[in-house]
């Protein structure tokens, strides 16, 4: 150990830990979570020994780990709270001490902590030898399919093989294409992206391959295409399934012999590029229907990677939310570190038709509207709010009966009101009448639960 923090209000516990570990490194103390986070941000700790009641306050261990991913936690709790200690270990803590503990209990934990830390560093080192540091957040995943995809990326990135990325719109095909490029031998050369579906058929060939002066009406000067711009690097052809038949022929020529010519030109130009293509269409079905060239499909399909939709990788939701919040903090200058746990839980009940792109857009909107340090459900779109309402967890047995009863009432009210407001399109009087209460009572409930009637109005009336 080197730098340690003890988060506790107990003078006896702090004194015992401090005396026992005085030779292991420097030890500091914090009385509350905010102070602990401030100290950790200023100078990250290697080990944090924290009272479970203080650490359980939002945002808990996650905020410390975002500053130093190698930080280790030991939770301190009374024996009647052993269940909480075990839950903390399940969430990432490396051990726990049950009060009252003694010097021997602390000494028994330290050797295992050092072994765990050494193993973590070894695994991270082996991983980092390939992945560049700035991409480490992107490749974090608990999902089996995504782990396999990243292993495939690791295998194919250093080669010059053509890669075909498959998956629904919004699953992150563009990000994966950049990941491949930045871990290839061409990473110092250009990465040129072109959205084929956004360019009219009459212009796609000019965009890809360029044109000579006078090649067509409006071609007043020679213009290089994207393949020339990407010389020595990578070209990413997004929505490659939408290109016209004539463009398919020219793209096939590039894939077959590495040459192309500008529109209106006779000379052959060398295409020194690595091609990564992406599509949300079923190209095999398009080949069967005769709308896509079979030989082009086979040339593109050298190394296919199929990306699962977000609803099939919900275990990565917290990682993704964390990544987007970091980007939003940089973009807008706020300091929102996380979302409310009920929101994360509710996200698991939503279908995510727009996949990761929809998640990013929803979070950005909520981020802009949020005035507290935590994104709550009230600033989410109504469809997502209803999913959050479905996902509100049952109260734990650590609550008193009165607290558990209030928890159930709050969950019921939130779910009931969101459904009712959706039916009435946010009309207060109609909602109050259906609920059998006054408009004044309804407004008080909406304020309590962070609901805004405007979110339930049809778009044309908003």
What does this molecule look like?
This protein has 462 residues and is of the alpha/beta class. Helices cover 47% and strands 13% of the residues. The chain has a five-stranded parallel sheet with strand order 2-1-3-4-5, with helices on both faces. The chain has a five-stranded parallel sheet with strand order 7-8-11-6-12. It has a two-stranded antiparallel ribbon with strand order 9-10. The longest helix has 26 residues, at 103-128.
Query: For this structure, what is the CATH homologous superfamily of the largest domain?
Result: P-loop containing nucleotide triphosphate hydrolases
**Beta-sheet strand percentage?**
5-15%
| Record field, number of beta strands | 14
Strand line-up of the largest beta sheet: 2-1-3-4-5
Q: Determine the number of helices (DSSP H or I, runs of at least 4 residues).
A: 20
Question: Termini separation (Å)?
Answer: 57 Å
CATH class of the largest domain: Alpha Beta
Rg from Cα: 28 Å
**Residue windows where pLDDT falls under 50 for at least 5 positions:** none
Largest sheet: 5 strands, parallel
Give the SSE map.
Layout: E1 3-7, H1 11-20, E2 26-30, H2 33-42, E3 47-51, H3 52-55, H4 61-67, E4 72-78, H5 82-91, E5 95-99, H6 103-128, H7 144-156, E6 163-166, H8 173-182, E7 191-195, H9 201-209, H10 226-229, E8 234-238, H11 245-257, E9 259-260, E10 269-270, E11 274-279, H12 283-289, H13 294-300, E12 303-306, H14 317-332, E13 338-339, H15 341-347, H16 355-369, E14 374-375, H17 382-390, H18 401-424, H19 428-435, H20 439-448
Helix pairs in contact: 11-13, 14-16, 15-17, 17-18, 18-19, 19-20
Protein name: Sigma-54-dependent Fis family transcriptional regulator
Organism: Desulfobacter hydrogenophilus
Keywords: ATP-binding, DNA-binding, Nucleotide-binding, Phosphoprotein, Transcription, Transcription regulation
């Amino acid at each position: 150990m080197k730098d340690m923090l003890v988060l506790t209000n107990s003078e006896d516990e702090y004194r015992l830990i401090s005396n026992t570990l005085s030779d292991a490194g420097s030890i500091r103390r914090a009385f509350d979570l905010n102070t602990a986070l401030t100290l950790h941000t200023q100078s990250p700790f290697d080990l944090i020994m924290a009272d479970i009641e203080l650490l359980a306050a939002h945002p808990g261990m996650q905020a410390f780990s975002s500053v130093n991913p190698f930080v280790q936690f030991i939770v301190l709790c009374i024996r009647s709270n052993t269940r909480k200690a075990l839950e903390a270990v399940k969430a990432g803590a490396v051990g726990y001490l049950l009060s009252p503990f003694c010097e021997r209990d602390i000494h028994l934990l330290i050797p295992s902590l050092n072994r765990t830390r050494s193993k973590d560093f070894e695994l991270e080192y082996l991983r980092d030898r390939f992945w560049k540091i700035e991409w480490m957040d992107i490749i974090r995943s608990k999902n089996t399919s995504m782990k396999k995809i990243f292993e495939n990326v690791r295998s194919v990135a250093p080669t010059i093989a053509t890669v075909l990325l498959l998956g629904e719109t919004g699953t992150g095909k563009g990000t994966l294409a950049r990941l491949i490029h930045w871990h290839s031998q061409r990473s110092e050369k250009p990465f040129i992206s072109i959205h084929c579906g956004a360019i009219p058929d009459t212009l796609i060939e000019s965009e890809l391959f360029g044109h000579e002066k006078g090649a067509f009406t409006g071609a007043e000067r020679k213009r290089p295409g994207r393949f020339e711009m990407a010389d020595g690097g990578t070209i990413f052809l997004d929505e490659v399934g939408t290109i016209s038949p004539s463009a398919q022929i020219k793209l096939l020529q590039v894939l077959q012999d590495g040459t192309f010519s500008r529109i209106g030109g006779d000379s052959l130009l060398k295409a020194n590029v690595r091609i990564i293509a992406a599509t949300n269409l079923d190209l095999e079905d398009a080949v069967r229907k005769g709308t896509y060239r079979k030989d082009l499909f086979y040339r593109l399909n050298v190394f296919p990677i199929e990306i699962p939709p977000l609803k099939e990788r919900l275990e990565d939701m917290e990682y993704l939310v964390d990544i987007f919040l970091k980007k939003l903090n940089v973009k807008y200058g706020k300091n929102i570190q996380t979302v409310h746990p009920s929101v994360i839980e509710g996200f698991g009940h939503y279908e995510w038709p727009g996949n990761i792109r929809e998640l990013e857009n929803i979070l950005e909107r909520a981020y802009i509207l949020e005035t507290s340090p935590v994104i709550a459900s009230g600033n989410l779109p109504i469809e997502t709010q209803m999913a959050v309402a479905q996902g509100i967890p049952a109260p734990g047995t650590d609550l008193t009966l009165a607290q558990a009863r209030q928890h159930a009432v709050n969950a019921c009210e939130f779910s009931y009101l969101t459904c009712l407001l959706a039916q009435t399109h946010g009309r207060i009087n109609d909602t109050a009448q259906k609920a059998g209460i006054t408009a004044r009572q309804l407004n008080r409930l909406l304020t309590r639960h962070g609901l805004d009637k405007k979110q339930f109005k049809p778009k044309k009336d908003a």
